[in-house]
Amino acid sequence: MDLFTHVIFGYLLSFVLWGPAAPQYIAAGALAAGLPDADILLFPLTRWFPRLHHRGIVHTVLGVTVIAAVGSLLVPYLPYFTHASTLLYFVAMEVGGLSHLALDGFTNYAVAPLEPFARRTLKLDADLAVNLVTIALTAGTLVVLIAEHGTVAFNVWVSTAWILVGIYGGYLLLRGVARWRAGVAGRREGYAAVLPSASPWRWLLVDESDGPERYRIRYRELSLGGGPSGPEHSLEVRKLPTAPGPVDSPLAALERTYRAAMAKNEWLAENYHAGAALERGNVYEVFWFLIGAGGLRRAFGVRGEIDRATGAISLRSGLLRLPPEARGVP
Predict the structure, then answer these.
(1) Which residues, other chains included, contact 298 with Cβ-Cβ below 8 Å and sequence gap of 6+?
(2) In this predicted model, what pLDDT tens digit does every residue of 34-49 receive, in sequence order?
(3) Beta bridge partners of 223
(4) What mean pLDDT value characterizes the chain?
């Protein structure tokens, strides 16, 4: 989820818990809900302390508890915060921090909330981290709250907050129920996982096998209420080491570039991905892309070329524009 959505959700959750009579705890919860994403500022230190990477140790129960403990001592000295119970400030910030973990787990980008004690991830696959619906909800909420600040009666602000709680809660409930329905349909069709789209009624059925020597994936669109739609896309490749020499087929191009592409983009390696290779004169143009995280004819991943005669590889990572023959269902 984006930072503003985390803050707005923490604000509304804190409003439900503390009520309009305790604005200092509402503010503390909203602040704590956004703080875990400050770990992006720690990227210069990740070379020496890998656990400080984004969605690393700061995105854990331990991390948010440390933030809440320190914050409960500091926030009373910040502007607009009143001196009040340190324990209640801690509780407010702990709840706000945990809401951040819950929302990140609600997306298809997993977090490991129990690190460093356990590696088990929280990944509900119920929504996209970049979702036009949640961005629109957040933008609308910000406009409303800014417009009402200091301009409306107290009871109007309270009514607005409750309306926003209902909108956010209803949307998350809708996504959760849709995720459950999609999972049932996916298992019935023989797929191990489902991936979301911006629409709660459109999903992607996925079945993946990722071994030391081979990678296999198959995927197909699912419309809730209408069942699987369109063709099934599948790929199986050997994970060959990069080596010089002729490349005689699109499959060989994919197998020869697999390890290099995964090393080029760790995010690609850690999520469901597929590939395509197209003959372009003396080279094969190669695409390795995330499935379920693209749209508008684009996808995140790695694109490059491998020379058909020498096997020389050139790759670059980023947002790809996939040609129709390579697109599938990104």
Answers:
(1) 319, 320, 321, 322, 330
(2) 888 776 666 665 566 5
(3) 202, 227
(4) 82
